[in-house]
Amino acid sequence: MTIKDTYKTITEASEETLFKDKNSKFFSYAFPIQNEEDAKQHIEALKKQHHSARHWCYAYQFGTEENNLSYRANDDGEPNNSAGMPIYGQIQSFDVTNILIVVVRYFGGVKLGVGGLINAYKTGAQMALEASNIVEKTINIQYCISFEYKNMNKVMRIIKEKNLQVTNQILELDCKVFISVRKRDSKAIFETFNNQFEIQIKAV
Predict the structure, then answer these.
(1) Do residues 84 and 100 both lie within one domain?
(2) 63 is in which domain, residue-wise?
(3) Core-most of 69, 73, 127, 201, by most CB within 10 Å?
(4) Torsion angle, CA of 19/43/47/58, rounded to 10 degrees?
(5) Contacts of 156 (CB under 8 A, 6+ apart)
(6) Other CB atoms closer than 10 Å to residue 183's CB: what's the count?
């Protein structure tokens, strides 16, 4: 069984997109996020930017099915499941995570009905995603390798041989080197270092 260790996300905020239906305007935005706090900050900023709008509906997701998946959908006063879930449906459809999509509605005086709202919010979310730069990233495990200075060459040789990514190093009397390893390779890399004399490795 192969371990799924990649996910799709966006690298930067999308350009603003606009969908109109019966005088209502729907402005859409997609943002990369790492947690709920990131999402809140973007939503608050949009509420200030569009202070005269009627609804700020959104959905977000971070994590992956294999690793602490978390999501939320909010209708923000629109009829139940007519806004947040259609937006979230597009996040699932594009198979992206660590993302927030907000669709801001200015009411145009004509009611769209639940079907019209579902279509508008779905379309708004789709447009935001189409305007985004979607990339594939790997799920990585972070390790700390601890050793005495005399073992530096041994550690660095393995890092070079295995082409490992060093994220940080603290080189004093005792040395610590931090590496980032793709999930699917993590067990083998752990074993490689763990089998070395006078070298400790642990996940961080």
Answers:
(1) yes
(2) 6-137
(3) 127
(4) 40
(5) none
(6) 17
Number of domains in the chain: 2
Q: Which residue has the tokens 């998946």?
A: 69
pLDDT at position 1: 57
Is residue 149 a part of any domain in this protein?
yes
Per-residue model confidence (pLDDT) at position 3: 66
Residues 40, 114, single domain; the answer is yes
Measured CA to CA in angstroms, residue 93 lies from 97, 106, 125, 200 at distances of: 11, 26, 11, 43
Residues 202, 133: Cα–Cα separation, whole Å? 35
Series of mean pLDDT values for 10-residue runs along the chain (204 residues)? 82 96 97 95 97 97 85 97 98 97 96 97 98 94 95 95 95 92 94 95 94
Bridge partners of 168, per DSSP, are 178
Three-state DSSP class for residue 43: helix
Q: Do 112 and 101 fall within a single domain?
A: yes
Same domain, 146 and 75: no
In the chain the first and final C-alpha atoms are separated, in Å, by 25
Q: Looking at the domain assignment, is residue 1 inside a domain?
A: no
